[in-house]
Amino acid sequence: MAFTKQTALHDYIQIDHEDCSNAFRSFSVDNTDSDVDVSGFSVSGNDESLSGTRAQSFSGEAFYTPELHDILWHLYQDRAVFFMEWQPDGLVDSSREVWSGNVQLRSYPPGATRGDVRVVSLTFKAADDDGIRCSAGNT
Amino acid sequence: MTYEDRLVMKRYLVTGRRKYRWHDPGTTFEARLDPDAERRAIARGSIRVIEAIETKLPDGGYTLPRDWPERADAPPTRDDREVALASKTREG
Questions:
Q1: pTM of the model
Q2: Which among B17, B37, B43 is the nearest to A17, CB-wise?
């Protein structure tokens, strides 16, 4: 069976309930469980491990613009916990899965390189024990 | 958020140039927003409160269903008073 491959062009990104899709040119969600070593003495000598704590975050590269700065600076300055959402292809397909959660912006590093477009790399870490959830889109 | 807060909805106008909670700029919507999210959105000019809507029935503005039993005319018994007292104690 074929997989529905597509070029990423229409992703929906919401920061503090505001549509910021057009500000980003790359975006991802990171879900990583730590590795807990539970190896004991055994005939095989193989390692054993279990999943430990789970770290989740959104990250992406955005164009550094006055409009985005107006949103992000206050969230960072106030250490605010705010709602964030990412829906792959969400601007044209509301049935796609939705990644969402309450997050904090832990670093805000705008900068500039002469002649290059202004961009800023952003990481939003999950801020409550609900973490970042993946739910079904509207069908 | 208190019980009373939950009964108050607000009508908002999207004043920014971007969608707010999927609502287009220039459109209105009704919602009960998280107070912090509302404060931030108003501060950055994304939305404006047009009015607060209290979701309650006006005094005397409702009627019971037609098949609702009529009020009993017998005097209250000791059981009725105990039920009323227990109810009052729970509320207090």
A1: 0.78
A2: B37
